Amino acid sequence: MGSRPADEVLDAAAAGVHYSALRLDELNINGSMTGEEQPTTSGVENGHQEPFVIGVAGGASSGKSTVCKMIIDQLRDQRVVVVTQESFYYGLSDEELVHVHDYNFDHPDAFDTELLLSCMENLKYGKAVDIPNYNFKTYKSVASARKVNPSDVIILEGILVFHDSRVRDLMNMKIFVDTDADVRLTRRIRRDTIEKGRDIKTVLDQYSKFVKPAFEDFILPTKKYADIIIPRGGDNDVAIDLIVQHIRTKLGQHDLCKVHPNLYVIQTTYQIRGMHTIIRDAATTTHDFIFYADRLIRLVVEHGLGHLPFKEKQVITPTGSVYTGVEFSKRLCGISVIRSGESMENALRACCKGIKIGKILIHREGDNGKQLIYHNLPKDIANRHVLLLDPILGTGNSAVQAISLLLKKGVQETNIIFLNLISAPQGVHVVSKRFPRVKIVTSEIEFGLNDDFRVIPGMGEFGDRYFGTDDYQSSTPFFCDDKNRVSLPPFTLLHPTPFHIHTAAAAAAASSVSASSGAMNSVIAKLASLLTDEYTHLKGVKSGIRWLRDELSTMNAVLQRLGDMDDDQIDVQTKEWRNKVRELSYDIEDCIDRFLQKHSGGDANANFVRKMKKLWENHQIGDEIKQLKARVLEEKERHDRYKITDQLIDLVSNMCAWILEYQPCTSKPKTLWALISLGNR
């Protein structure tokens, strides 16, 4: 498999400007994208960035226009457009013009709300609109409409902009300007006499007859919808400064962050974009994929830890000075969603020394169904903050299952931080709607899901690419004698694997194996790593490790075949054996993880005390391996007593018959079958 040098990819990725915005209205949720339709993750030409819409409401002459002007003045580096609700007054008929002083301009029915809604929707979705130009002397819209183009920030200002829920739902921020009634009356008299050509008596009569009752009946009740209430209007400089600062923060966020305040996307840099380019490339080698995935995971973990509660702490520096800093919560644990979530454990351990890590295994049922089948959590998890680990958030179904389990175990929703590398909008919506107080931390937002519920553009099956199982092929041939009869060793299972296996099929197979055999695949891989030259100090226990690896590989073959069978085809004794072996796999993995944690970052020049400590730890590990070996022998004997493999004889016979009937002893390609021997009784 060819690959480009990592430095070359990083330089190429840094050549353009990153654009991470997402058009939610154009998202193809249920449809797949063809090659020509597939978008990339950079380039402004790929979509329109949704503007930030601000609604400013309040009584007449409360200072709404002044607040809008102050916001515009401070957002000089952004394109800002103001749309006033007054532009959408209905024109008065000839009969209404005769009694114009009896017309209530402060009633919701005085505005063309449908036209206002249409204009705001078009602006929000990147289309230019024509805003009516209302003349308050003729009480009609003049012919020359005002052309308004899409902008970074859209401010909708008016007395009743919060009244219609459809208009209100378009807003990202709602501000209510609260000003004293006497001040508003004074301003109204001055404005209406100068700008609208009315006399004072008419203004006062209209105020007492229409304005004041309308404020109490229609305007003031909408105050409850406001996100921010500004007392004294434009005189409140502090409030305006805080609002502008918040707007600047939101403008730098992904569109989904504006919708879901519990979503946090780490700030994009050229380095982050370059690393995403590498791990998303199908030609990237496993070694490079692991290296750059680990770097990204570390950044996500560090960002997630920043959301933990903390308290102030003072320490004495080596110079004798006092430094005032913070101390984060120590009641913390990580929970990985098997199998991909295990790839994030090393980064978490590197950031949090000695952290407890639990596991949740969720088995896929059908195309989109999920079913929880295993969990191993800390006993005191209800009293801890939880970092939930899963590198890809797709449909959100697995995340919902995992979070629901944590809540049932007593974990507070606010104490859960969900960490992942990439997130599909659908998954973010599902998790945020169900658990709005769970924080989601990710490094990039995807475009969506295709018909197969795969994240696009995505990075493939993360677990397969990380653990090196994406190119899985069987290397064990079947044996035929001169009469084309298949020779089966005692207790042999047929594991069907097409010789020219596709990556997607391998990924699906690996997923089902992980669900059926618990942590066995992970355990076997970790045991193999302990046999490398990196752990030369384990000479005394390597034979036990090698024995465990070989025996567990055999048991794993049985678990795989049991996973392909329906529960009603498996007797009670076999189910009991299967469950015990699964539990055994998790105990072995815990033992390995404790060892790796103790022996990571070793110093070749450590002092004698440290060496003695490690010798003692090695002795403990050796004792644990002996105990685990005894348990494996016990389960192997139980396997022989129950004659578990006998249940699969019919399946084997059928497969053999199929092989013999399929073009025996010809030169045409055959399906390759792996024969996995369980050893002699």
Q: Looking at the structure, what is the overall shape? A: elongated
What is the CATH architecture descriptor of the largest domain?
3-Layer(aba) Sandwich
Report the β-strand fraction as a percent range. Answer: 15-25%
Side by side, the strands of the main sheet go: 8-18-16-14-11-12-13
If you consult CATH, what is the topology of the largest domain?
Rossmann fold
User: Helix fraction?
Assistant: 40-55%
What summary fits the major beta sheet? 7 strands, mixed
Question: In angstroms, what is the radius of gyration?
Answer: 33 Å
Mean pLDDT across all residues, rounded? 73
Question: How is this fold's topology laid out?
Answer:
Elements: H1 6-13, E1 52-58, H2 64-74, E2 80-84, H3 94-98, H4 113-124, E3 129-135, E4 140-148, E5 153-157, H5 165-168, E6 173-178, H6 181-195, H7 200-219, E7 228-231, H8 237-251, H9 255-259, E8 263-265, H10 270-280, H11 286-305, E9 310-316, E10 322-328, E11 332-338, H12 345-351, E12 356-365, E13 369-376, E14 385-389, E15 392-393, H13 397-408, E16 416-419, E17 422-423, H14 425-434, E18 439-442, E19 444-445, E20 448-449, E21 455-456, H15 462-467, E22 492-496, H16 503-516, H17 520-530, H18 542-563, H19 572-599, H20 608-642, H21 649-661, E23 673-677
Parallel strand pairs: 1-5, 1-6, 2-5, 6-7, 8-18, 11-12, 11-14, 14-16, 15-17, 16-18, 17-19
Antiparallel strand pairs: 3-4, 9-10, 12-13, 20-21, 22-23
Helix pairs in contact: 1-10, 2-8, 6-7, 10-11, 11-12, 16-18, 17-18, 17-19, 18-20, 19-20
